[in-house]
């Protein structure tokens, strides 16, 4: 009885991914993936390159229809352009001559999908400034976006994603191309926003180490299969070996986690990619 | 003394000639559209598409000449169709450029054939010159309302798609995730681009239509980093260059060989190039000064 009443009062998940599969031709990119995010969850979506992380994000965004299964946002089947979902795409590089100020870029998050030219509105700019303040970017609000650094541009994209007051924020590889210090800064920023706005975060990364202290749960994706839970539950040799389909070993060294490929019954280049992962973890 | 200077600058009859007024107003309208559309063409990396549209227009215009129609209809008709086809050729800019480049030579070949027929069968020796290098002084006055109408249409279209266009020019994936119909926007922009290019083909000719499209926009985005302002500045630079070009072409009537004015397009293209070089120089000096201040500070 007690257990059931707890189950009833548990909050409805913000995002539910139910048994999603995606095939590209004969290749299974995602194989029966299920996961759930609650409000305020900070979840790392971790896996080697080519594991299907970006595809999973595209399914959640409604950009890639799944071949099986479904995705629900607050109990409703997702659709493209949902204002409750914020999205920060993978490595955007803006041309230095892009004729846009930081404010212009962020404002697109508010009404970039609407027809016509924006009408002058104080409310619009107030909302933009609020989002800029949330990511500590007010300093360069009027700077041309093309002249800002990769890290600064990333903050603007996060601000842009926050404008519609989403319940879920998807970040695709926001830490790649950043040095370790900037990576930790982005993680701290996202983690703070998640707490302040009770926002569920799904952050894609190929290296879990910068996220270790910050994330509540991990979704580990390999070979199109996923395991979800706490880091201690998921990042274990036998769990990951099952995902990869061959033996891998999890090694913990000085507070860092390395995933080392074992004897892989796979083409040489694929086993090398696992070793690459291990090496990047060591750096 | 002042009077003679005035007459050196503005040759007698400049302000009283109806052909001059027509040229001034038409080129201004074309410059505004080209400048506004050009900013997006530059930002989206579609300068080559813009140039190709001008070349496609050549074939249309020479075909129209052959059929006894005004070149304007050939420019616009073929430009709009070619724009739609180019847009469906490839989703990525590189793919599109390669496909466009391959088709371009074939279409230009057909254009060359049409021009040959124009000069042999229809005996219109001026056709190649007019189509390729433009002749804003010779445009049929009855066409002015049509040209202005199409200009208005292109600007209206650009205003309607402004925000989603800006968004998808920044990043297509992001725009699509936010619900922007990126394919539709891309096709609509291609139509606006085709209209702008073919209009300027009338003024400066098909080969130089890119000058009015890309030049002013490229200069403008070096100086401003707001999209609306860049469009305004590009339009102003376009108007200035084409008016200066018309003035010089009118004056050149007295230059050797006397009584045969130089082509307007030559002047417009030269002025735009000159401004472009100046903008680079100024910007460089600006940054050097900026660095010096930083060092001293």
Short description:
With 283 residues, chain A is of the alpha/beta class.
How would you characterize the overall build of this protein?
Chain A: InterPro entries: AAA+_ATPase, ABC_transporter-like_ATP-bd, ABC_transporter-like_CS, Metal_Ion_Import_ABC, P-loop_NTPase. Chain A: GO terms for molecular function: ATP binding; ATP hydrolysis activity. Chain A: This is Zinc/manganese transport system ATP-binding protein. The complex is a heterodimer of chains A (283) and B (297). With 283 residues, chain A is α/β, with parallel strands linked by helices. Chain A has one domain: Rossmann fold, CATH 3.40.50. Chain A is 35% helix and 25% strand. Chain A has 9 helices and 12 strands. In chain A, the strands form 3 sheets. In chain A, strands 6-7-8-3-9-10 form a 6-stranded mixed β-sheet, with helices on both faces. In chain A, a hairpin with a 2-residue loop joins strand 4 (68-73) and strand 5 (76-77). Chain B has a single domain (19-296), classed as ABC transporter involved in vitamin B12 uptake, BtuC. Chain B has helices at 2-9, 18-43, 47-66, 71-89, 93-120, 127-133, 144-160, 162-170, 172-177, 182-204, 209-223, 227-251, 264-296. The longest helix of chain B has 33 residues, at 264-296. With 297 residues, chain B is mainly alpha-helical. Helices cover 79% and strands 0% of the residues of chain B. Chain B is globular. Residues 290-297 of chain B have low confidence and may be disordered. Classes of the chains: A alpha/beta (283), B mainly alpha (297). Chains A and B meet through helix 3 of A and helix 2, helix 8, helix 9, helix 11 and helix 12 of B.
